[in-house]
Amino acid sequence: MTAAHEQRRLAALHEYELLDTPAGDELEAVVRVAALVAGVPNATLNLIDENRQCQLTTHGFEGADSARSDSMCAVRFESGDVTYLPDAGLDAAYAFNPWVTGMLGHVRFYFSAPLVTPQGYALGSLCVFHTERHELTAGQIDRLKDLAQVILALFERRRQARANEALAAEVREQHDQLEVAIAELRRSNHELEQFAGVVSHDLAAPLTVVNGYLELIEERVARDDPESARWVAASTRAVGRMQRLITSLLTYARAGQAPCRPEPVKLGELADQALNDLRGTISDATVTVPADLPVIEADPTLIRQLLQNLLGNALKYRRKDRPCRVEVGARRDGEQWRISVADNGVGIPKAQRERVFEMFTQVDPASGQGHGVGLSTCHRIVERHGGHIVAAETPGGGTTVVFTLPMRHPVPVS
């Protein structure tokens, strides 16, 4: 046997963590049964490490560790074959062993079945012996081999149990860490939502004052000074953009903070309410809201805001070369509703269809339309309802946004 193989064998032995540990009831029972099968008074489970023979459990005598050089089991256990000696004193390899000569024992009959792992590493042996000459039948030898396999299976089960326990501990630790991370993320998100709401509110009031003073300046100065009029107009537009951004941020914050209270509500009525809020932007556009839209279970305030954002985008990002058309649709898909808002507008490039739901993402920042908050607000609303939202291309050009809502308690259309 090479030194490298011996190192691997020892590593396999130590991996089982059996040395110097209690054998346990099952292993002790197997050793007792081995003595009974062999019809002899003594049996032992021996493990061979670097320098010693460790008698893990014994039957019929008081076990103890001894030097590996004195071990009878260590002579041939690595061969993988059983050793059967009706009279060990007649075998040259054992006749002068201290367990035979009387120095450590008076063994005559000796039988050992090596404990060899599936990887081919011998850990020790199941041994039965007697101080008198004794013979075994072929059936007894086969049963002792079976018991050696049982011992190996118990070794493996014990090792696997430790591995499972370690894995379970690791999973528990990771779960605890995940819980902490989730709690921290929720806290952080809550603080960010509060921050967005407070900052937006605190910014809105000063901007109202600024806008008021700009109106006064326009009345007193700008009417007689064209250059000043241009400056005032640019400032007023900038204030308007900031006010719209603040409104978007407040809407986003409220979408995350406001309670989500699902209730049965007619989807068609929510769409009509959203369109009523957008009536100033519908000119020259055809918006189709089917009469058979279903009753859904959702928070009506949040879903109305969601539809208003989606319909507003569809009306805003229209193409100049054809009339604007928008269609709302809904169909059942298993245990959820798939609701869509489709337009024939400028569309969203494929590479950006996932990013558009991120905060402050704009398809065309140079256009000056929007702030990249509306779709992120839609994403938050759908997420709070337990659904998903995606953007796709409308056949023939344009954008179709589809979001799902769980059918918690399906309600018939009335």
TrEMBL record:
UniProt EC number: 2.7.13.3
Record-level Gene Ontology MF annotations: phosphorelay response regulator activity; phosphorelay sensor kinase activity; protein kinase activator activity
Subcellular location: Cell membrane
GO biological-process terms attached to the record: osmosensory signaling via phosphorelay pathway
Source organism: Paractinoplanes abujensis
Top-level class of the enzyme under EC nomenclature: transferase
Protein name, entry field: Sensor-like histidine kinase SenX3
Coiled-coil regions listed in the entry: 164-195
